[in-house]
Amino acid sequence: MATKQEAVEAKQGLSYDVTNGVAVITVDQPGAPVNTLSPDVGAAFSDLLLQAERDPEVKAVVFISGKKDNFVAGANIDFLQTLKSPADVEAISRAAHAEFDRLEAFSKPVVAAIHGACLGGGLEWALACHYRIVTDSPKSVVGLPETQLGLIPGAGGTQRLPALIGAEAALDLILTGKNVKPSKAKKLGVVDEVVPVPMLKDLALKRAAELAAGTLKVERSHQGFKAVAQSSKKKGIAGLFQGLINKDLWKEAALEDNPLGRKVMFDQAKKQLLKKTRGKYPAQEKALQVIRVGLESGRKAGLEAEAKAFGELVFTDVSRRLVEIFFATTALKKENGTSNPNLKPREVKKVGVLGGGLMGGGIAYVAGVLQGVPVRVKDRDDAGAGRALKQVQTVLDERVKRRSLTRLESNAKLSNITAGTDYSGFKSVDLIIEAVFEDLKLKHQVIAEVEAVTGENTIFASNTSSLPIGELAKGSNRPSQVIGMHYFSPVHKMPLLEIITHPGTAEWVTATCVDVGKKQGKTVIVVNDGPGFYTSRILAPYMNEAAYLLAEGADIVQLDKALVDFGFPVGPITLLDEVGIDVAQKVGPIMEAAFGKRMVAPKALAGVVSDGRLGRKTNKGFYLYENGKKKEVDPQVYLLLPHGKDRKSLDPAEMAERVALQMVNEAIRCLGEGILRSPRDGDVGAIFGLGFPPFLGGPFRYADALGPANLLRKLEHYQDKYGERFTPAPLLVEKVRANKGFYES
């Protein structure tokens, strides 16, 4: 008969055995791809610790995972969603504090042997251990990403991490929510040792025995002050919070222990934080506050503040929206983009890229370096082919500078990519991604050339941002193998890949391209064909409305600020300069031809383009640029706009609402017309492709939060005032009549 203890172990996926006087506790939760932390798991672990403590033969403990590429991925988010009140969450947090305090105070040394993701509650668990070893695998990362979910670490992380590596480095990790690789974790002092994967368990057993015998002494002294996390800018939500901490504020470690200096530092840090978040992300402010409490009043007070803040944050709208995004992107990772979830993608062993410009070079990088397959780039001349290789080299050089790659590794990855001016090397490619000029005739010519030199199963994917894929397929002898793969610039940083299928696209083609996108590190949505697809289509009225406001006399800086205050990462005029004013002007007629008067762009910007102001790429647009960096608005540009330099002071809230509601309304149209498969995909696409404010959850979550009836009234108000470009989407009217939200069936 199984004992009660054995039943607990079986239920929670924890096992216990003893090797040469060292107890090995293995966590391997059955039926789950990753291990997660919950109160039951923590309690079962404590029971096993008690068993180890009572066993006189056991001198030390090793804590390890039985999963292939995961240590503990964090707290169980599904479990948190079941809690009913902040008090319930606080109780869970306090229970975790008690469990980890017991672990930290355990009479025998405990070694955390980490392989794979050690995140959130998983890292907090490891921080309570006495020694941490991590493998050098690319799969191994450590971090406290809770702020990306609108939360803070709730199991002692806000107190243990600053105590271990110093406040500066801890704040950098906690406020941004970014992960660090093993070498950086070692440099920061988060872990004690980095080892090859095969050596992990044996070395953990050895270190545990050495700690027990007293032959291994661990000395730590806030390595973080000398090694602030410098990991690359992260994609998606994490990217919002990079650079929050001004390193100049923290030059002297002694300030951390100086009450006056500490006050100055935290006051300045909060000021800088609010400048970045604009008060839209309360978790970052709470984290800063809780860490400060711990430093000023001690760990007990810090843990109490952590529990209280954690409980409050779980029930904020911001956290709900960010958690919804997390679940949405997690679900997308499991999908293949087709109606047949069991359809397997075909293997892509080699990729061809047509066009060596900014997009082509970026696509070559994500295919050759991240996906890891040979890439052949073709451009019309040697200069273009060279630019593509130089662009890849530039990104690799940045990684070498950040020490995420060695020079030898960089050279090896670059050798995966070759370039030329003809189709040599294209015969064996499985996927061709075209990134040439937005001209239908030119693209048809390219398709014909490609099909003459490639195999019958080669997929042709276009990176077009506006031309219908069905029209492109008309120029192909293999239309079922024509698809859209719309990347966003800069390709190596932007997280979204929008895949566009026309009615004749074969499902195996879709599944294969979705798989390629995932291997390139992208969040992938699949949409149906139409002019502008989804992202370009909803961006067009957004940009048009900003142009209308300029024509009405809006100040450029005030207009940009209004949308940044709303929650977008940059204002629409800055974005226009980034995209290229000429590019936007070329897309305009395509959208107008497809959608009529409501997509007509104001003629106010014609003079700006004719003046040679194309944006950042010419160092002159609405703003002036120096060495690629934006300076101030060029006052002369106002002479090219209606009202000249006589700008009007328009209401910022109304400006932001007019521009943002255009995007929301068009997104609803896309759902109603079947361009989108679901509101979820529309929200993910707008956030990760266009920077729609994550704390609002995307256009559809925002519409539901406003209330469809309220949104309808706002649009009707602007329609009466400004005309048919604000005509409410038919699906919105239907939802109001049915008294339903967009996430209601």
From TrEMBL:
Q: Which reaction does it catalyse?
A: a (3S)-3-hydroxyacyl-CoA + NAD(+) = a 3-oxoacyl-CoA + NADH + H(+)
Q: Which pathway is this protein assigned to?
A: Lipid metabolism; fatty acid beta-oxidation
Query: What range does the record give for the signal peptide?
Result: none
Q: What are the TM regions of this chain, as residue ranges?
A: none
Q: PROSITE patterns annotated for this entry?
A: ENOYL_COA_HYDRATASE
Chain ranges of the 3-hydroxyacyl-CoA dehydrogenase C-terminal domain = 532-625, 656-740
Query: Record's InterPro entries?
Result: 3-OHacyl-CoA_DH_NAD-bd, 3HC_DH_C, 6-PGluconate_DH-like_C_sf, ClpP/crotonase-like_dom_sf, Enoyl-CoA_hyd/isom_CS, Enoyl-CoA_hydra/iso, FA_oxidation_alpha_subunit, NAD(P)-bd_dom_sf
What is the protein name stated in its UniProt record? enoyl-CoA hydratase
Organism this protein belongs to: Corallococcus exiguus
